[in-house]
Amino acid sequence: MPKPATKLGVILTDRGSKYAVSGAAVDSRAQVDATLKTLKRDKAYAKATHNTWGVLLPDGTPLKGDDGEAGAGMVILRMLERAELQGHVIIVTRWYGGKHLGGDRFRHVQTCVSAYLDAYGDGGKKAD
User: Fold this and answer.
1) I need a labelling partner for 30 at 20 to 30 A (CA). Which of 16, 58, 78, 99 fits?
2) Average pLDDT, whole number, for the chain?
3) d(C-alpha 119, C-alpha 116), whole Å
4) d(CA 19, CA 50)
């Protein structure tokens, strides 16, 4: 059973869209799915437009989910690889504000992931 997701809440807003970041220690795809399911029990997260995520499992297997936000999962995954953080899923949630953000949406995903990694010190290397 995975630990409950740590929610850092809304990190930024842009043109009506809101971005939040969450994450949890996991060691399997089943735990990733359980973490996402638990997060979506919160009505605000369940109603979000996108819950994108990425994880490097402890064995090094990369997994990601775009949830309709094409390319966002890969952004998260690349940042996890650079931070050398395995066994920790990071979820970036977006509530669409009615205006297209173009490439800014990827910068916002990066900002959210950076905020999460910074919460653990050493770019995420101290995460449980």
Assistant:
1) 78
2) 88
3) 5
4) 10
